[in-house]
Amino acid sequence: xxxxxxxxxxxxxxxxxxxxxxxxxxxxxxxxxxxxxxxxxxxxxxxxxxxxxxxxxxxxxxxxxxxxxxxxxxxxxxxxxxxxxxxxxxxxxxxxxxxxxxxxxxxxxxxxxxxxxxxxxxxxxxxxxxxxxxxxxxxxxxxxxxxxxxxx
Amino acid sequence: xxxxxxxxxxxxxxxxxxxxxxxxxxxxxxxxxxxxxxxxxxxxxxxxxxxxxxxxxxxxxxxxxxxxxxxxxxxxxxxxxxxxxxxxxxxxxxxxxxxxxxxxxxxxxxxxxxxxxxxxxxxxxxxxxxxxxxxxxxxxxxxxxxxxxxxx
Lengths: 152, 152
Prior knowledge:
The structure is a homodimer. In chain A, 13% of the residues lie in helices and 26% in strands. By secondary structure, chain A is α+β, with helices and mostly antiparallel strands.
C-alpha cells in the first residue's frame, strides 16, 4: 500500500536503503497520432516534467525534441536534448542515476510532457540532491536540505 | 493523515464533495537574493510546474515572468504571463478554479519553478479535467478520463 510522502525528500528511506530496487526499462507503447499531439516550440523542443512514481515528488525539468521523446518511449529510459551541448543525453548514463519510465502524458495543448519514472541511484539532480527543486522561497528556503552541492 | 492518491484523478472524492475546502491566500515570504536565483529565458520567462499539495498530482505547466512571479509570492495566488494574449492572468479569476500557493521552489539552475498549491473548484484544466495532463501515451491513453473537453 502506498503511503503519501513529503514532496521533497532528499534521502533514501532506511527501508529503501535496506532493500534497493532494481528497475527494468520497459518501452511505452504509443501511436503516431499520439506523437502528433505534441506541439514543439520554435526551437523544436517541448518541456518535460519528471515525477517520481513512488512518492510523486517532482524531480526535474528538462527539454525533449521529437527524436528524444521517441527514444524515451521506445527505450523506457529518459532521453533529453541538451540546448547547451546540442546533443542527446540519456539521464543517468554516466552517473548511474537512471530513470525508468512508467508513463508519459501530454497536456491539454500538447506543449508540455509529464514523465513518471522510477528514479534509480542517488536522485535526479547533478548537485547530489534527490530533486532539482531543493530550494524554496522563504526563510531558510535557500539552504538545500540534502547534501551540500559541489562548489557551495 | 495524508494517504497517497493516484497521480491523475479527475473527480472530487465524495469526502471532498461533502465537505468542500475553503482555502485562504497566504503570501510566500522571499528575499531579493532568492528572486535573483531565477534565470529567465530570452523572452523573460521561466516555466512553472503547478503541483497539488493534497495528492501531489502535477496539474499544469505555464509561464511566469519576473513580475508574475513576484505577484504570485506576494498574493499567494498563481499569476502567469500569457504569451498569446501578452497579458498577466491570475488562475481561476474567471473560472473560480483558483490556486492557493503553499510553496514555490526553484531548480538547481534556476530556470524552472515548482509551485505547490491547494486547487479550488473543478481543477486546473480549461477542458474540465482536474489536471492538464489527462492524456497518456499508450493504449486508451488518448481518451480523457474526465469530462469531454469542449469541442471534442
